What does this fold into?
Amino acid sequence: MTCVMQGAFDITCVRRDSGETSIGPQAVSAPWHLSKPYWDGNVLLVQAVNATAGIFAGDHLSMSVTVQSGASVLLTSPSASRIHTMPSGEASLHQSVRIDEGAWLEWMPELFIPQNKRRYRQTTEVAAAPGARADIVLVDLAHPLMQPVRDPLRSFVFHAADRAVQTLLVGGEVALQDGEPLTLDSAAAAERLAEAQAKMLRDTPG
It folds into this structure.
């Protein structure tokens, strides 16, 4: 017998009259689980958990998070998401996030561990209010220096570093696209560095 999951994680975070952020309307179904939110005085910690061993063929999941005006949220997950081998069939996850004017969201998605011969599609939509200042980093898990994908965070920090960064937004502006800087003249920066190094060598006694 094969069991497939069609679960949804749909929450709206709101600012209360007291100034605290809390969960408002919500609809969460298996395999998703919403851990008890925690307000630390400044930000509401929200944990979205896939309570199963991972994603298998036939699973089609969705996540929708809305942060309303004045609310402050840290959205994360305590565990990695493993995409299992799929001899047949496929799986998918659609994620959508909306940040209203005056809202604040830090999103730290769970680590992603794809296994061999999987058929999996993941789409992510982020909608921010006009004028919002977003900082977003997109890392290419298929980059050779990110392989094998057993511990993506360790591979990124100790091996790939900036070489695996595909897209970077700083303050809502695209600073890096397809691995190429858009706001920096690399050649000019390298020339200034070489000049500074040459000056340092000239000025060094002995």
Remarks:
- The first strand starts at residue 8 and ends at 15.
